[in-house]
Amino acid sequence: SDLLFPGCELTASTKSYTFQVDEEDDSDHILALSVVCLTDGAKDECNVVEVIGRNHENQEIAVPVANLKLSCQPLLSLDNFKLQPPVTFRLAAGSGPVHLAGWHQIVHREDASFEEDDDFSVEDALPPIMPAKKQRSKQ
């Protein structure tokens, strides 16, 4: 099921926000960021927002996802950039306020199970690639 992620606001006084789920929960959770934008009261300065999460080796990594400036790029669409909780959003530079919004998807383990169709293959699903026809030049 999809839930609206009401979002969070990063400011000079609240520089980070952590989205986490109950460790006892055996569902899969996905947090998708849709929009990062400057809100009322923002100064014309660079506001860098970074995401802090864990890589495949369970090491903490920080990745900048937005660099907003009121006069040239006050809003950034992240096209539902998917993250796996726990994840922390941090205002690495600037004083904000920066608002983040998106959605939270919960996939229950029993919903994720499916039966594979043995009759289906990639060759059946994709049409064959045909070579391009050479065009004759008119002379």
TrEMBL record:
Q: Name one GO biological process term.
A: chromatin remodeling
MF terms (GO), sorted A to Z: chromatin binding; histone binding; RNA binding
Tell me which domain of life the UniProt entry assigns to the organism this sequence originates from: Eukaryota
Where is the region Disordered? 116-139
Q: Name one GO cellular component term.
A: nucleoplasm
Q: Which UniProt keywords apply?
A: Acetylation, Chaperone, Methylation, Nucleus, Phosphoprotein
* Annotated Pfam families: Nucleoplasmin (PF03066)
Q: Which residues form the Nucleoplasmin core domain?
A: 7-105
Looking up InterPro entries in the UniProt record yields: Nucleoplasmin, Nucleoplasmin_core_dom, Nucleoplasmin_core_dom_sf
- Enumerate the SUPFAM superfamilies for this protein: Nucleoplasmin-like core domain (SSF69203)
Localisation: Nucleus, Nucleolus
| Record text on subunit structure and interactions | Interacts with NPM (via N-terminus). Forms a pentamer with NPM at a ratio 4:1 (NPM3/NPM). Two pentamers form a decamer.
**Family note:** Belongs to the nucleoplasmin family.
Instruction: Write out the function statement from the record.
Output: Plays a role in the regulation of diverse cellular processes such as ribosome biogenesis, chromatin remodeling or protein chaperoning. Modulates the histone chaperone function and the RNA-binding activity of nucleolar phosphoprotein B23/NPM. Efficiently mediates chromatin remodeling when included in a pentamer containing NPM3 and NPM.
Record-given protein name: Nucleoplasmin-3
